TrEMBL record:
Transition state stabilizer (site feature) positions: 149
Keyword Ribonucleoprotein: no
Matching PANTHER family: EXODEOXYRIBONUCLEASE III
InterPro entries reported for this sequence: AP_endonuc_1 (IPR004808), AP_endonuclease_F1_CS (IPR020848), Endo/exonu/phosph_ase_sf (IPR036691), Endo/exonuclease/phosphatase (IPR005135), ExoIII-like (IPR037493)
Comment on bound cofactor: Probably binds two magnesium or manganese ions per subunit.
Name of the molecule in the record: Exodeoxyribonuclease-3
Upper classification of the organism: Bacteria, Pseudomonadati, Pseudomonadota, Alphaproteobacteria, Sphingomonadales
Length: 256
């Protein structure tokens, strides 16, 4: 079983690239972030034409997450992350599909920091950890997949100096992410590439893609029931280099 996460950076603007990737790689489950469309305008017919069922939590113009399943319709478990009733951002959706629990996550960026956006990021991460603990207690194969907007280690960026003041790499952001892995969730990509140097994001600016000036912020965290079945974890890097591509590349795992 192949499970992928892909920050598409606007599903309507990148729809040809998304369809292309689905047709060429055929993941069993695909978690999307930054779909940037309302629930009403999500291109469900185009997705279904590729052989995928879909579940989505949209928001006009920004944010938005979705879960796609090949030959099936994901069964919704939770829409929106509990713990802050006034939070109206569409950043979390959770479903059961193909015998596993999957969450698609678009964690807040947090810039500029310090400030209210960074405070919101840290509160969101605390809420995510609380939900992760509830999923853990169910003792099921589970994958928390998405754009975490966290660079976990120095080895996960092309330049520590360039990113040192960014919210993605602050000690508080890293500590909140490592709290999840400390709870027992396995960082799939890190487990297969412990030496680092594997990027999932390249900015559109500063010639980042041609210079390979990227960093790793898209993660799949696995419960023990999923981690025990992990056979591979990789990045579909080439898709970042295609015409009108997202600034993220798809990341995927394979489970027995």
């Amino acid at each position: 079983m192949r499970i992928a996460t892909f920050n598409i950076n606007g599903i309507k603007a990148r729809l040809p690239r998304l369809i292309e990737w689905l047709d060429e790689t055929r993941p069993d489950i695909a978690c999307l972030q930054e779909i940037k469309t309302s629930d009403e305008t999500f291109p469900v017919k185009d997705i279904e034409a590729t052989g995928y069922g879909a579940l989505w939590h949209g928001q006009k113009g920004f944010n938005g997450v979705a879960i796609l399943a090949r030959g099936a319709t994901p069964v919704e478990v939770l829409r929106g992350l509990p713990g802050e009733a006034e939070d109206e951002h569409s950043r979390y959706i959770e479903a059961d599909v193909h015998g596993v629990r999957v969450a698609s996550i678009y964690l807040p960026n947090g810039n500029p920091q310090p400030g209210p956006k960074f405070d919101y990021k840290l509160r969101w991460m605390k809420r995510l950890r609380a939900r992760a603990a509830e999923i853990w207690a169910e003792e099921i194969p589970a994958i928390l997949a998405g754009d975490y907007n966290v660079i976990p280690y120095d080895r996960d960026t092309y330049s520590v100096r360039a990113m040192q003041d960014d919210a993605l790499m602050q000690p508080e952001s890293r500590a909140a992410y490592r709290a999840l892995t400390g709870d027992g969730w396995t960082d799939a990509l890190a487990s297969r590439h412990p030496e680092g140097g594997v990027w999932t994001y390249w900015d559109y600016q500063m010639n980042a893609w041609p210079r390979n000036a990227g960093f790793r912020i898209d993660h799949l965290l696995l419960s023990p029931g999923a981690a025990d079945r992990l056979t591979d974890a990789q990045v579909d890097k080439e898709y970042r280099g295609r015409e009108k591509a997202s600034d993220h590349a798809p990341v995927w795992i394979e489970l027995r």
